[in-house]
Amino acid sequence: MAFPRPKPTTMETLAMERANPPFNVRKLSIKMHGSERSLILKEKFMAESGQRYGALHMLTPQIARHPAFKLSDIHDLSKDELRERTMEKFASMVYYVTNESLDTFSLRMQLIGIADPSFWTRFGVAYGLFLGALRSGATPNQLSYWMDRGVLGLNGVIGCFAMTELAHGSNVAGLETTATFDPASDDFVIHTPHLGATKWWIGGAASTATHAAVFAQMIVHGKRHGVKTFVVQLRDTKTFTLMPGVTIGDIGKKMGRDGIDNGYIQFTYVRVPRAHMLMKHTQVSRDGVVTEPPLAQLTYGALLGGRTSMVADSSNSAKKALTVAVRYAAVRRQFAQGKNQLETQLLDYPIHQRRLMPLVAQAVAMGFTALKLQHMYEDMTQSLDSLEPGDPNMDEILDKLKETHATSAGLKAFCTWACLDTIDKCRQSCGGHGYSVYSNFPLMYADFAVQCTWEGDNTILSLQAGRALVGAWGAATRKKRLAPGVAYLGIPNILSSKSDDSLSLRDVQTAWHCVAANVVKKAAEEYVSHLKSGKSKDEAMERCSQSRFIAAKLHTIGYIFGMYREAVEEMEEGQETAVLKKVCALYGLWQVEEQQGYFLKYGYFTPQQMDKVQVAVDDLCAEIRAVAVPLVDAFALSDHIINSPLGKFDGSVYESYFAQVQASNPTPKVHPYFDRLIKPLLERENALIEDTGAEMGLDDELEEMKAEREEAEKEKEKAKRVEAKVRKEEYARVLPGGKVDDDEE
């Protein structure tokens, strides 16, 4: 008698998935993190000690030891409790920001941002935005002044960033808060002229900030000089009462990131010293002489740090969601196939591989792009810091600035969109359990959604990138020097390139160059045609906005693929590089499949070759599925950071899920609303219901209607019988024998 073999536990299943991977997980992780130092720092931040599973440290998270960084109960906290816990974290982080190097602290905050986006944002408002505004806009003496007053240690100044207004967001040049110079007192008067100019969405303003970097239209001697930045005190640092003329309120609960106290600010003729205007680029003298920067582009630098970090955050947040989804898909079994007595792992279904494997490839591709972009940003920042008037490298530095600005705009837009889509697809791939708040997908989605609209609405940023591409096409047609990111526009015959049918990384790269060049050319030609028809430059740009958007999208996807391809081709050959090349090929070919209309339109691939692309994507998904669990292990995210029972490293999915649900929802000893609501409902007396039907004689009327229907049916049957008799007599007259049976009729 054959007995069915026992079903392996989820923990045993995940252990089997990790058995004998064809690469070293730690070496792969080092490559993904850019260096061994970065990975070691990340592990240090997560843990001090722990046990090893295979090639991955599963560590007791360091931040989990601090009560303020508890995450398991975060789904059941109120808005006020979340905000209070966010502030509890500040004290522990201030120590690190004042004692670690900038690059080390940035890596620390990047990790904390994956675990707790609300705190990352609130802390980032103080350090990334407020301090960033000072670093990019203040003179050296001004920066020293504010540093001496405690900006770095938050001991004297807690800053916020007051740019966005109720009626203006992406259009920074259109902000309506005013800063009018008063030469008599050597002050600027900050004022909110109407409701639409109210500063809105200001993180930290509602209850924690003492000062704000306020963006306002500068008016000197009646003349407007555009938006400048002013440091304005909001609250008394001793009593925390609002300063005269400052009105602040709370904008309330949001879709996500409730740990941030977003508020609104109105200024009623608030005076600040002239020295509180940040004057690194534009200066205003004691007698009101305004000196503008020789190159307005130099102010771009302040915008790029946030965009750059959001590309990395998109990759990391997508990796967090995918770690959960892939591990869950490996242990979840549904339906037996064929003679197999075991139900099939979700990850073994080809359609499930199609759901997740391309998203894994995309997250890895964005990660390598983020590393490249960070290096580009650091080089550009160093160049700007060392720039002097008359510098012979001025043109080269400005080109680098323009490319970083345009590239970061497109990457911010399309990477944040891709990550938000990834989180929701991962949620759906986990079925019903993905809808539970304890899966962490709902909070991940709600927290990440804002990335698509802050620091520039994604559609607007895409159009900025498209504008730069239109300009680059013009430079290419004039044979001018092109920035590295758009150098493909100058490749001879790129517009008419054809596939060599190999689907190699080089072939796929040429495909993206070809299609991107064609859509950029189309946008540029539309722009020129509108100019020739008499439109202004701005009008012409708006008329070709859809083509600019498409150009930005295809250029950015191709750029991400190119950054990933360059990264893997620079690596030493080995098992880890081999798997990364497969992942790279999957990303490039999957995106070709997603955007296949353009590849067919411009003739790079034939329809038959597109069929080959689909087969190649199917095959790559199956190959990467075989190593999917160790691949996501290389993302190096601890259980504490993931904060989802569905993605537990050891595979104890159901045990952990059940335990968390029980712990977070204890059964009350007394039902909270039985006496008030349920008991009266159960024990209520049925009210006397009048028989209105009897009063109107409805039942008698219905009986009459029934009798009429029955009489009509009888008449109908009688008519049928008469008709049949007549027909029989007619047949009898014409047929031999004169007799007709009913069957013959």
TrEMBL record:
Protein's organism: Saitozyma podzolica
Record-stated family: Belongs to the acyl-CoA oxidase family.
Residues of the Acyl-CoA oxidase/dehydrogenase middle domain: 160-268
InterPro entries attached to this UniProt entry: ACOX_C_alpha1 (IPR055060), Acyl-CoA_ox_N (IPR029320), Acyl-CoA_Oxase/DH_mid-dom (IPR006091), Acyl-CoA_Oxase/DH_mid-dom_sf (IPR046373), Acyl-CoA_oxidase (IPR012258), Acyl-CoA_oxidase_C (IPR002655), AcylCo_DH-like_C (IPR036250), AcylCoA_DH/ox_N_sf (IPR037069)
Coiled coil: 695-732
Oligomer and partners: Heteropentamer composed of five different subunits.
GO cellular component terms, A-Z: peroxisome
Chemical reaction(s) catalysed: a 2,3-saturated acyl-CoA + O2 = a (2E)-enoyl-CoA + H2O2
Major site of localization recorded for this protein: other
Lineage start: Eukaryota, Fungi, Dikarya, Basidiomycota, Agaricomycotina
GO biological process entries: fatty acid beta-oxidation using acyl-CoA oxidase; lipid homeostasis
Keyword Magnesium listed: no
All residue ranges annotated as the Acyl-CoA oxidase C-alpha1 domain in the record: 300-470
Protein's cellular compartments: Peroxisome
Record's protein name: Acyl-coenzyme A oxidase
Gene that encodes it: POX1
Cofactors required: FAD
Active site: 455
Annotated residues for binding of FAD: 164, 203
Gene Ontology molecular functions: acyl-CoA oxidase activity; FAD binding; fatty acid binding
Keywords for this protein: Coiled coil, FAD, Fatty acid metabolism, Flavoprotein, Lipid metabolism, Oxidoreductase, Peroxisome
Pfam families according to UniProt: ACOX, ACOX_C_alpha1, Acyl-CoA_dh_M, Acyl-CoA_ox_N
Residue ranges of domain Acyl-CoA oxidase C-terminal in the record: 506-682
Functional pathway: Lipid metabolism; peroxisomal fatty acid beta-oxidation
Annotated Acyl-coenzyme A oxidase N-terminal domain residues: 59-149
